[in-house]
C-alpha cells in the first residue's frame, strides 16, 4: 500500500510540475502529448489517427475531439494519406512544430529538475524498474523484450 500511495502522490506532484512547465507555451499536457508524438515521428511529422490512438492509448472519439481542437488552433492539419486514399494523416503545422519544440525544451529541463536528487545510477535503476513494471500493463514496443524502449 505504501508504494502505490507514494506513486499517487508523485503523480500529483509531477502532473502539477508538467502543467507549470508547459504553461509558458499555452499547451495543456494532452495537447503536448499529441504534438510530441507527431514530432517524434520525424519528418514530415505526420501519423495516421490510428497510429496516434495506439501510441496515446485513447479512444477514437477522444482523438477526434483532440484533433478538432488542435486543428482549430492551427497546430495540426489533416491531409489525405498518399499511400491510402481512404485514410488521413495528421501533420504538424509550422506553428505546431515551433510550439512543441519549445515545449520539449521546457519538458526536458523540468524532467532534469524533478530527478535532480537522484544519481545517474538511481535514475537508470528507476527507469529500468518502471519499464519492467509497465510490461505488466502494456506490450513492449516492437514486441521484443528488454532494451527496445528508451529510458
From TrEMBL:
<feature type="domain" description="HTH marR-type">
    <location>
        <begin position="1"/>
        <end position="135"/>
    </location>
</feature>
<dbReference type="GO" id="GO:0003677">
    <property type="term" value="F:DNA binding"/>
</dbReference>
<dbReference type="InterPro" id="IPR036390">
    <property type="entry name" value="WH_DNA-bd_sf"/>
</dbReference>
<keyword id="KW-0238">DNA-binding</keyword>
<keyword id="KW-0804">Transcription</keyword>
<protein>
    <submittedName>
        <fullName>Transcriptional regulator, MarR-family</fullName>
    </submittedName>
</protein>
<dbReference type="InterPro" id="IPR023187">
    <property type="entry name" value="Tscrpt_reg_MarR-type_CS"/>
</dbReference>
<dbReference type="GO" id="GO:0003700">
    <property type="term" value="F:DNA-binding transcription factor activity"/>
</dbReference>
<dbReference type="Pfam" id="PF12802">
    <property type="entry name" value="MarR_2"/>
</dbReference>
<dbReference type="InterPro" id="IPR000835">
    <property type="entry name" value="HTH_MarR-typ"/>
</dbReference>
<keyword id="KW-0805">Transcription regulation</keyword>
<dbReference type="InterPro" id="IPR036388">
    <property type="entry name" value="WH-like_DNA-bd_sf"/>
</dbReference>
Amino acid at each position: 500500500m505504501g508504494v502505490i500511495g507514494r506513486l499517487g502522490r508523485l503523480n500529483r506532484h509531477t502532473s502539477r510540475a508538467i502543467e507549470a512547465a508547459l504553461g509558458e507555451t499555452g499547451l495543456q499536457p494532452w495537447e503536448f502529448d499529441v504534438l510530441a508524438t507527431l514530432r517524434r515521428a520525424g519528418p514530415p511529422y505526420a501519423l495516421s489517427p490510428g497510429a496516434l490512438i495506439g501510441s496515446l492509448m485513447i479512444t477514437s472519439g477522444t482523438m477526434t475531439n483532440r484533433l478538432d481542437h488542435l486543428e482549430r488552433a492551427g497546430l495540426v492539419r489533416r491531409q489525405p494519406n498518399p499511400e491510402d486514399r481512404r485514410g488521413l494523416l495528421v501533420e504538424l503545422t509550422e506553428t505546431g512544430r515551433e510550439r512543441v519544440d519549445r515545449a520539449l525544451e521546457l519538458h526536458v529541463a523540468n524532467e532534469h529538475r524533478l530527478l535532480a536528487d537522484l544519481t545517474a545510477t538511481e535514475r537508470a535503476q528507476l527507469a529500468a524498474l518502471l519499464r519492467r513494471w509497465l510490461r505488466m500493463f502494456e506490450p513492449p514496443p516492437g514486441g521484443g523484450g528488454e532494451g527496445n524502449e528508451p529510458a
